[in-house]
Automatic annotation (TrEMBL):
Its main location: membrane. This is Type II secretion system protein GspF domain-containing protein. The keyword Cell membrane applies. The lineage of its organism: Bacteria, Candidatus Woeseibacteriota. Keywords: Cell inner membrane, Cell membrane, Membrane, Transmembrane, Transmembrane helix. It is a multi-pass membrane protein. Belongs to the GSP F family.
Amino acid sequence: MKKFRYKAKDSLGKTVTGLVEAVNDRSAAKLLRNKGLVVIDLKPSRENIFSFFGKLTKKVTASDVTNFTRQMSTMINAGLPITEALVILRAQSSPSFAALVTQILADVEGGESLSNSLSRFPKIFSPTYVALVRAGETGGVLDKVLMRLSDNLEKTQEFKGKVKSALIYPIIIVIGMLVVSAIMIIFVIPKMTDLYSQFDAELPFMTRLLIGISAVSQKFWPLVIVSIFFGILLIRTYAKTKSGKLLIDSLLLKIPIIGPLNRQVVLTELTSTLSLMAGSGVAILDGLKITRDVVKNSLIAQAMDDISLNVAKGFPIAYSFAKHAEAFPFILPQMISVGEETGKMDEVLAKVSHVFETESEQKLKSLTAAIEPIIMIFLGIGVGFLVISVILPIYNLTTSL
């Protein structure tokens, strides 16, 4: 959202000035006209340093979107027009989300459909979200679609929260190990090296290795930093290419423990989205194409592209999924086949999604249980290496005196 400074005349002919937030100048002008103002001048507002840093703290969160979806569903189900529901939600929302709702309200009051207005904010409302809202509008079941969508968003948020919580501890430990190692190599080891050289002591291999690493880091630290920076940049650049993303995503699925968990998480989201699409009246081919954009793994996304092509040619959905055993477990095409035969695709996919979610949570618990002792072992080895490398020469010196 951008800020525009305007000068306009109201219904009484009085000149008024102020700020308005909108996606672009055209939307800003439309918003002002809807307020009964005749625009005289409209230009982007220049931000000072305080407003710039204030903007950095404002962000539309996943919780904002979930609350918006659930409350919209409740109010539409109660018989409120969409415009009234948006006015109420604007008053209840955070400043950043209220500005967004203001723009949506202006669009809807100007004759746009809710789905068309939401599609203008792809970073906030995904293609899946927009497609489901559009299907709800077309079928006259917008409240039911929004309710299912809010349930899905809440489950997704909850699961992502569990994954993040499981990964926070090992990440903190690893960062702590790296910081301690850096302090030892940069500050402690050089001082100990002076001590060792004064006594002309015979140093063990581990100590000599640590001193060598410290000396290289001290002497060539600019080169080390530049090498690390360009190494990360090179990997990131390659990861953005089609072949690089495919290679990295394929490797991620093969990592022990983490790979199967990653696959289950992707499949949970995929089947959940497909279930929502099928249950909301979205055509299966459109649902497959939209779901493909939801998938975060390029190997599975590539398989979804081929599945869409096969379904477009008239092949059964289950058969199209079964062709990609490298991406999908055997249970998925089997259950999809049941859904095709019974005509209850959304219910079947919802059950499969629940199975994948349960398996994901079990794998997550296994990962959490396994990762703590593994980290403690590596931490012990790392600390032991540093302590022995520093203390052993001192011990040898004291015993030789």
